[in-house]
Amino acid sequence: MKNQLLRRWRLVHTWSSLVCTVFMLLLCATGLPLIFHDEIGRLTGTEVSAPTLPPGTPAADLDRVRASATRAHPGTVPQFMYQESDDDTQWLFTLNRSVQARTEPASAIVDARTAQLLGQPRYDEGFMFLMFRLHVDLFAGLPGRLFLGAMGLLMVIAVISGAVLYAPFARKTALGAVRGKPGDLTRWLDLHNVLGIVTLVWTFVVAATGVVNALSELVLDHWKNEQLATLIAPYMGQPAAPSSGSLQAAVAAARASAPGMRPAIVAFPGTEFATPYHYAIFLRGDTPLTARLLKPVLVDARTAQVAASAEAPWYLNALLLAQPLHFGDYAGMPMKIVWAAMDVLCIAILWSGLVLWWRRRRPTEVFALRSQYL
After folding, report:
1. Which residues cross the membrane (predicted)?
2. HSE-CB of 6 using CA atoms within 13 angstroms
3. Which is the most buried residue in 294, 333, 347, 355, by most CB within 10 A?
């Protein structure tokens, strides 16, 4: 009975891992440079660093910051502006021909302290763009995201079933033992098992957060149709603001409504995350954890009065926490190095799994392997 149960688990492990292995190898290969996207971006010019200024330099008026971004791309209007959680020295703007436009936006990075233009990077070309699109959706949009999410789910199943299969083996062999001669199937299996246990938690976390990230577009759409729609419903049908009011006053009002929080994202009036007459300002906390979570605040573009605010639902918080955890963005360079090392080990696990599957097709090797492990 016990051997029969193990055979079932082995079948689950073999086929769940076999189906997703090629795509997991692709995701590991493309994910490795994405771990260091900031550093690579600075080398390639897609990431811009703000100049060093004396500590305590005050932030510039946000209306001046917006004007600098708009001047960089005449004939456009800003749709969104945002800051990274660990860098409050610059604002990144996306601009388009109109606030409702869905064409590829232009970008501008403006110093948050001097309101000087720092750069106009393009994010739709180059090596990192290729790595990102292959990693996120295989250049196939939402269907590609969902397909890779399904592969991630199979990886989660493979990790769980692999841990179940390793348990009885661990009672027969020393922890970390790699037996057999180089090239033996036994040695490949021991190596596969040892690396799998060493990276068990990491692989599970990265695969699970990858599944969550694959659903990001659906999660955001659900949030827009549920909570955000509820927030803006009372204001539908009102006359649209003739022009966007003071950005500085709107952000100041949002911050005053939630002390201890600072702006992370601003959606300008008329964009899909705001209304024609409100700024949607997303605030974040000031701790490593709360800096990843967002609180939406609607501010009237004409009067700079807070119209509504709400706490983000649990599913949006889960997405916001999963995204940086997937790429090791929580603890600076030390965590990135750990993530990169684990990524390389995961590639070794996937490759050894392929070798095991291929060589198990030889009856003599399978018989020798079963005589030792069953």
Report:
1. 12-36, 146-170, 191-215, 337-358
2. 12
3. 294
* Dihedral sign, Cα of residue 353, residue 356, residue 361, residue 366: negative
Taking alpha carbons only, the member of 268, 267, 298, 263 closest to residue 283 is 263
Going by C-alpha positions, the residue among 303, 262, 69 that lies closest to residue 281 is 262
Distance CA 59, CA 301 (A): 21
At 190, list the tokens. Answer: 């021991």
Nearest C-alpha neighbor of 59 from the set 112, 109, 108: 112
Q: Are strands 278-284 and 262-267 parallel, antiparallel or unpaired?
A: antiparallel
Query: How many helices (H) and strands (E) are present in the chain, helices listed first?
Result: 13, 8
Q: What is the 3-state secondary structure (H, E, C) of 264-315?
A: EEEECCCCCCCECCEEEEEEECCCCCHHHCCEEEEEECCCCCEEEECCCCHH
**Residues 129, 138: Cα–Cα separation, whole Å:** 11
Q: What distance in Å separates the CA atoms of residue 266 and residue 273, rounded to the nearest whole number?
A: 9
What pLDDT score does 92 carry? Answer: 95
- Three-class SS state of 118: strand
Token digits of residue 10: 């082995």
d(CA 337, CA 250) in angstroms, rounded, equals 40
**Ranges of each domain in the chain:** 2-38+130-214+328-373, 62-120+242-301
Say how far apart CA 100 and CA 259 lie, in whole Å: 32
Q: Which of 200, 195, 160, 207 is closest to 351 using CA atoms?
A: 195
**What is the reported pTM?**
0.85
In the structure encoding, which two tokens stand for residue 29, read together?
Answer: 């290969």
CA atoms of 365 and 20, how far apart (whole Å): 25
What's the order of all strands across the beta sheet hosting 295-300? Answer: 117-119, 106-111, 87-96, 77-84, 262-267, 278-284, 295-300, 306-309
Q: Which residues contact 155 (CB under 8 A, 6 or more apart)?
A: 16, 17, 20, 24, 203, 207, 210
